[in-house]
Amino acid sequence: MNAKTADKVATVVICLFAGIIVLVLLGLLGFILFRGLSHISWDFLTSAPETIKAGGGIGPQLFNSLFLLVLTMLITIPLGLGAGIYMSQYAKPGKVTNSIRLVVEVLSSFPSIVVGLFGLLVFVNIMGIGFSLFSGALALTVFNLPLMVRITEQAMAGVPREQKEASLALGLSRWKTITSVMLPIAMPAIITGTILAAGRVFGEAAALLFTAGMSSPRLDFTDWNPLSPFSPLNPFRPAETLAVHIWKINSEGLAPDAGEIAAGASAVLVLTVLLFNFGARWFGRFMHRKFTATR
Amino acid sequence: MEQSAVKGQKTNSKSAFMKPHIREEWVGRVYTFVCILVLIATILAIVYFVASKGLSTFITNGVNIGDLLTGLKWDPEGEPAVFGALPFIFGSFSTSLLAALIAAPLGCCAAIFMTQIMPGAGRRFMQPVIELLAGIPSVVYGFVGLSVIVPMLRAIFPGQGIGILAGSLVLAVMILPTITSIATDALAALPGGLKEGSFALGATRWQTIYRIVLPTTLPALLTGVVLGMARAFGEALAVQMVIGNAPHIPRSLFESASTLTSAITLSMGNTISGTAHNNALWSLALILLTMTFIFVFIVRVLERRNHR
Amino acid sequence: MATTGMKVKDLSVFYGEKEAVKKVSLSFSPKQVTALIGPSGCGKSTFLRSLNRMNDTIGGVKTTGEIWIDDVNVNDPSVDVVELRQQIGMVWQRPNPFHKSIYENIAFGPRYHGIKNKKKLDEIVEDSLRRAALWNETKDRLHNSALALSGGQQQRLCIARSIAVKPKVILMDEPASALDPVSTSKIEELIAELKKEYCIVIVTHNMQQAARVSDRTAFFYMGKLIETDDTDKMFTNPSEKETDDYISGRFG
């Protein structure tokens, strides 16, 4: 085989492989949406699941997922911002900083099931919070924090040095420089990254099995007192999320329409993640345009 | 507080802590430092708790560490209970290795496609595809694996469709984005002169890729593959849904098997804390954790070589 | 105000092992413009940046020697850098306005230093913009983004921003090298105006500019101060051969 033929063959093979990947994604999305969309209705999205009868919905699970996401972000964002700022602005280059960076890297590659086990032991049992949204949010924080730190650190590193120096030269403290000059410039990148991270949190299940639990109490959507045990807003009640629900009905679902429910729930999950993805993209482009526009 | 700050400035007090900017600086430093401490404390706590629980199997329950690592029989509720975790270890290694073997060529080809063959339009089109693949939650992969891949394998091959191959296929798709994005970054960072020199000598594009591009980026490509394997090794639910969960070493790719993660997922909820069975599951988690460290170590070594 | 100059004694700056500035002693008088000239990499920018301890923000830089402003040694580790930098304004090569409105760019510093009164701030903004010869161009759009200004306007805004906090000394690091000739001459006029009140130190590559704007000139070469004198004398009759070679364009 001469060089020209080899070149052609290789090009075809590479394009073919790239094509396969595109087909896999299209097939995946097509399958989920095709199987799932027909099952999605207002009733499906709002009603409670049934254990053995057909016709159950995913209302509480959907609510739990969203509520858990909010709780997680409330804990993660301040922590992640602080740690990221420390890494990019205060940490002096050297051995200590390098080992902290290694810690972040290791933490981000821990299997989520191990994070879940840790949550079970420490948050659920030792701290006595029990299977609850709050335990789940803490576990997801462990899972999400390294990502937030990296997002913040990179966004802060992307701020032009002249901006920082201009502020320092005016006689502003470093902290004021960080919060008033650098953070606003880094914000678009941080927000884009956070939205993507939120998508990851929304779909996570393994870390939640043993922390937020695999069941929900019968929620009373008329009771909005966060202290009442049946209130949807009570952060100390167990909560099965959408992703956990999909896993559960696939492995032990008894309802005759378990397959359809799983498909419908998967479609909802994927659509939400797509929404986060496009949201992040759109926001990134919007901010880019806003900042580069001449007027 | 505010009042004293203003006063401190007006009277230009020598006391350093009265100066608002010094106090402010302090608040910032303490706040960010506490955040980083939380991060470090978290990882130390994870290592400590998983290790102490995982090691108690050997210390409290008297299981031999060698027996656990090499034993073939897992019968935690039997009389006497037997904890041989080799089937799980085997399952984890075989699924993640196989997944990497499937995903690596695909991912590298996608990266070459995006950087060398169609750097403009191809990349604009492929990049979102890869990002979306990365964004799909693992339970959804498990669900699709269960409803598409398993029946398909059952129709073509002997057996029930569940098993190592089904798990590997699902994992391969899941780790594809990791491998592809790292490979793409590495290929895109290659200095243009390197390629042009080769083209100028009359080499074809494939010869250039094969002789120049791939060898120079090899450490980075391997980094991607190792990170992909690490992700596959730690993935729990998607694998658990399609692998069958039988606690023994399968004789073929199409026979029910188990991984470390699937064993933990299935049994942790049904055991009582402090029992030998429960502790044994923590030992499995400890193996997972150790492997994570090994993967990170390998990645570090590869990166160091890459920078040289 | 403005009766303060700076005195530098035996200043050395090290980047790791490399000595970028070698035992430089130099003083800057009030109401005068001092130009620092020399070929690229001669240490003049590093020297300038050490005058307000801006090199602290880069890791691995060590500075020795003394820098006196009034009775304060800038290089004393116990000095409050934040307060110090308020007294020493700085202007960079590329205009770097904050990503804020024109008004905010100016008001940001004074407000931080304790001026909360809106009327007072308005006055400072107008006064600073007038001194920077930017008021007429911007008075109708004070609340538009500063990034919408042209490069030359942005640079004058940066100068206005630095004088808004009432510094004693203004450091300029090639303030006109990224600008077109018209903007450059506006900046030069502005420097001539500002020197009536401030002590100005300007780094420049452009010998004609040094000759036009400065009263005194210091020539740096390979990290050393070769010679310093009145600008007229430096450009007509320098005492050192290296200075002569550089000024007549034989290298650099």
From TrEMBL, chain A:
One of its GO terms (molecular function) is phosphate transmembrane transporter activity. InterPro entries: MetI-like, MetI-like_sf, Phosphate_PstA. SUPFAM superfamilies: MetI-like. It is found in: Cell membrane. GO terms for biological process: phosphate ion transmembrane transport. The keyword Disulfide bond does not apply. Its main location: membrane. It is a multi-pass membrane protein. Keywords: Cell membrane, Membrane, Transmembrane, Transmembrane helix, Transport. This is Phosphate transport system permease protein PstA. It comes from Paenibacillus methanolicus.
Automatic annotation (TrEMBL), chain B:
It comes from the Bacteria. Pfam families: BPD_transp_1 (PF00528). GO terms for molecular function: phosphate transmembrane transporter activity. GO terms for biological process: phosphate ion transport. Keywords: Cell membrane, Membrane, Phosphate transport, Transmembrane, Transmembrane helix, Transport. InterPro entries: MetI-like (IPR000515), MetI-like_sf (IPR035906), Phosphate_PstC (IPR011864), Phosphate_Transport_Permease (IPR051124). Residues 89-299 form the ABC transmembrane type-1 domain. Part of the binding-protein-dependent transport system for phosphate; probably responsible for the translocation of the substrate across the membrane. Belongs to the binding-protein-dependent transport system permease family. CysTW subfamily. This is Phosphate transport system permease protein. It comes from Paenibacillus methanolicus.
Automatic annotation (TrEMBL), chain C:
Residues 6-247 form the ABC transporter domain. One of its GO terms (cellular component) is plasma membrane. This is Phosphate transport system ATP-binding protein. GO terms for molecular function: ATP binding; ATP hydrolysis activity; phosphate transmembrane transporter activity. GO terms for biological process: phosphate ion transmembrane transport. Coiled coil: none annotated. Part of the ABC transporter complex PstSACB involved in phosphate import. Responsible for energy coupling to the transport system. It is a peripheral membrane protein.
